Amino acid sequence: MLEQSLLLTDLYELAMLEAYAAHGMAGTASFELFVRKLPPTRGFLMAAGLEQLVGFLETMRFMDEEIGWLRASGMFSPGFLDGLAALRFTGDVDAMPEGTVFFGDEPILRVTAPLPEAQLIETRLINLMHFQTVIASKAARMVLAAPGRQLVDFGLRRAHGAEAGLLAARASYLAGFSATATVLAHRDFGIPVSGTMAHSFIQAHDDEATAFERFARVRPKALTLLIDTYDTERAAAIVARLAPRLAAEGIHVTAVRLDSGDLAAHARRVRAILDAAGQNGIRIFASGGLDEGVLQRLVIDGAPIDGFGVGTSLTTSADAPALDCAYKLQEYAGRPRRKKSEGKATWPGRKQVYRRYAADGTIAGDVIALAGELMDGEALLQPAMRAGRRVAGLPTLEQARACAATALTRLPDVLRRLGPGAVPVAISQGIRDLVARMDLAAQPDSVP
Question: Where is the Nicotinate phosphoribosyltransferase N-terminal domain (predicted)?
Answer without folding.
Answer: 7-129
